[in-house]
Amino acid sequence: MESIFTPYMLFNFALIAITAPFLAFIFSLIFKRFAAVIGIASIGLSFISSLILFIGVWKKPVLHFSFDWIQLANFKINLGFLLNDLTVIMLLLISFIALLVHIYSVEYMRKDDLKYRYFAYLSLFCFAMLGVVLADNLFLVYIFWELVGFASYLLIGFWFKKEKAVLANKKAFIMNRIGDVGFLIGLMILLTQFHTLDIDVLFGQGNLIASSFVKNDIWATPFGLMPAYWLSIAGFCFFAGAIAKSAQFPLHTWLPDAMEGPTAVSSLIHAATMVAAGVFLLLRIAPLFNQLVLTSMAAIGLFTAFMAASIAVTQTDIKKVLAFSTISQLGFMILAVGVQDNAAAIFHLVTHAFFKCLLFLAAGMVIHQLHHLKEKYQENFDDQSLEVMGGLRKLMPITFIVFVAASIALAGLPFTSGYLSKDAILVSVFEWADERGGIYWVFPLLVSITSWLTTFYIFRVVFKAFFGEFRLPQILGKTAEELKITDPNRWMTIPVIILALFCFALFFAYNPFNLESSWIYGSWNNHPHHTGMYPILVPIYINVLSFALIFMAYQAYAKNTFAFNNQASWYYKLSLNQWYFNSFYDVFLIKILMLKTKAFYWFDQKIIDGFIHLLSNIIIIISKITSWFDHYIIDGLVNGSAWLVSRLGIWLRGMHSGKLQHYFIWMLLIFLSFFIYKLII
Amino acid sequence: MIPLQHFLFVGATLFSLGLFAVITRKNAIQILMGIELMINASILNMAAFGKYDKVDNTGQIFGLFIIVLAAAAVAVALVIIMNLYKRAKSIDPNQTNTLRG
User: Fold this and answer.
1) Are A471 and A590 in the same domain?
2) A92 Cβ partners below 8 Å, 6+ apart?
3) What residue intervals traverse the membrane (chain B) (predicted)?
4) Alpha-carbon gap: B55 to the closest alpha carbon of chain A (Å)
5) Beta-carbon count within 10 A of A112 CB
């Protein structure tokens, strides 16, 4: 099918899509009063361009625009866009969600003095994120990758007067830095081996990666040979970058802390888009990974998914639950990449972006309204704690409906987008384990447990926050009429309602029970394998138990017919304390680092500085000696000769007495002295 | 015949006496007299040495020259002394220090 757009037009639209947010970033800082308008207009423009690009590129040949940028001897870096299916779906996703979040933010940040800065940072983030997606070579991706991290840093620490926010953004930045080092090393390995970083040249159909092979432990490419382990190292390095960005074990601890930022930011950056950048990167360079790397990826994804889900079960902070849920879901995506079902990873990335963004925005609405109460009554309570909520179903019906929509999508119940995408991953994992057998059956087992945990923790939030009695009046000792809260205004409700629509399967597949009919999944699914019993059985057995768990959560948290009284057990504590990762890092990494730093400080202070001080003292002493020498010897010599001449003059002047006879005596003496002189010689 | 040493001895004595007078006397006239003694001592020496030059008589001729010059010098010196007396009302050389400078 021939496109109605020429490649040149598409190139221009790509340029508009990426430059609009950047210009918005600059103009928001200049025209502070219109920051929100500029932000929304620019991201709207990006969205429209993305839509056109999507129409022009989807399921059509790859478009690659590339221009020379840097050329140093035989090292060349290009600047350009790579437009393929993955690019355009990500573009559309990012710009669409960013647009909704921008609109939502207008109300959410209304009372903030530094609102213009918020919108500027948000635009900067959109620019960087679209750059990551559009860039056609890995060097450019790396630049935007860093920029994304920086924008995230700025936004986590947006309320920089809160000490926790400052600590959180520092933590996020440092943790991401660890992964970035891996990314950079991976880049260098690829550059050495292939002499190019162009994604299309490297990973395109039948290109460099495809034409390289491993034989006799040698990794051979058209450019040279390397020991085969470098292939694994390169894979692990890029994976390290993804681990940090997508908050996987062991670098996941920054994401829960990042919830100190505004909730809209958590929603866009730390749930829907930026954290997906790691998964996106893995998908972009997927042909690079060998079996070793893929299996490790699957293992880490699985472990992260399970761990984070188990932590989310006991957290009382609503945003913390959602943060761990995000980590868990990203684990699912990494797992999908690991089991080589890229289609499922992309699909889950897209569906997850919608429902997780929605969960955060809905939670943000609750927090926003509670925060108003907090300010109105000057009370001190934690507006994010589940303990103060409850019964909000009647007070905030729209919030309740969208939250439940997102929750059922997250839980993967039928008719939702999550049902399709999560079960795609589950089925892939089952088949993958079935092919291998033995110990690999741990994967399907754990992933099923994780899936049930997901259902349980999200419905725990639903029942605790929206069912039962509103607990805040009791805590504050006020009547329920006094603490009346309602749904926020349309700036907030319209974006969430739009997002809620995308939680349903209808947008992704004609038949909500048939994965293969999904347009996103179908476009990548190169080897249609879901043919055995798994595609039918897995969703059934997962969902049956899910419904049971929902009923249990309902009884426990909404009706209070029974309560969990295992608060003292080791697994409850493990979960509540987030598996002690923070404590572990504090004790084993930070303490050691601090000790080392102190040792180096001491060394610097005493040895290096001491040596320098010693040198300076020696120089001072030498200069003092020189000064003394100058003063007394050199000057002394000059002054002494002057003194001698003057004394001699004074003495000789005495000879000129003006008396005749004295002259005679002198003449006689001098005359005699000649004779004496003659006699002696 | 008187040996040369005797002439020289007498000459040296005269010269010494003249020198002594020049250095010690407090009167310009006496100093002038001392100078004359010294000149005469030198003339005596010239005459004595002249004995060894019988052909040209250089010594005697030099002696005559010196006598003439001494006479002229004395004349000049006396004038100086007169002028000194006019200026300082004294001919004691210790009283004046106008030569200083």
Assistant:
1) no
2) A47, A50, A51, A53, A54
3) 6-24, 31-49, 61-85
4) 32
5) 14
pLDDT digits (tens, 9 = 90+) for A63-113: 888 888 888 777 778 888 888 888 888 889 999 999 999 998 888 888 888
State the total domains in chain A: 4
Whether residues A359 and A235 fall in one domain: no
Whether residues A664 and B23 touch (CB distance < 8 A) is answered with yes
Residues 6+ apart with CB under 8 A from A177: A149, A244
Phi, psi of A509 (to 5 degrees): -155, 145
Q: Do A112 and A158 fall within a single domain?
A: no
- pLDDT for A528: 57
Q: Which residues pair with A79 in a beta bridge?
A: A67
CB of A664 within 8 Å of a chain B CB? The answer is yes
Shared-domain flag, residues A395 and A502: yes
* Minimal C-alpha gap between A638 and chain B (Å): 29
Q: How far apart are CA B101 and CA B94, in angstroms?
A: 16
Structural domain range at position A675 = 584-680
Q: For residue A402, is it within any domain? A: yes
Tokens of A557: 């948290």
User: Cβ B31–A660 below 8 Å, yes or no?
Assistant: yes
A665 touching B (Cβ < 8 Å): yes
A515: buried, middle or exposed (CB in 10 Å: 19+, 13-18, 0-12)? buried
Map tokens 């002493």 to a residue: A621
Domain boundaries B4-92, CATH class: mainly alpha
Q: Which of chain A's residues have a Cβ under 8 Å away from the Cβ of B100? A: 656-659
Within 8 A of A663 by CB-CB distance, chain B residues are 99
A664 contacts B22? CB cut-off 8 A: yes
What is the rounded CA–CA span in Å between residue A518 and residue A455?
Answer: 23
CB contact B19 to A (< 8 Å):
yes
Tens digit of pLDDT for each residue in A378-399?
777 788 888 888 778 888 888 8
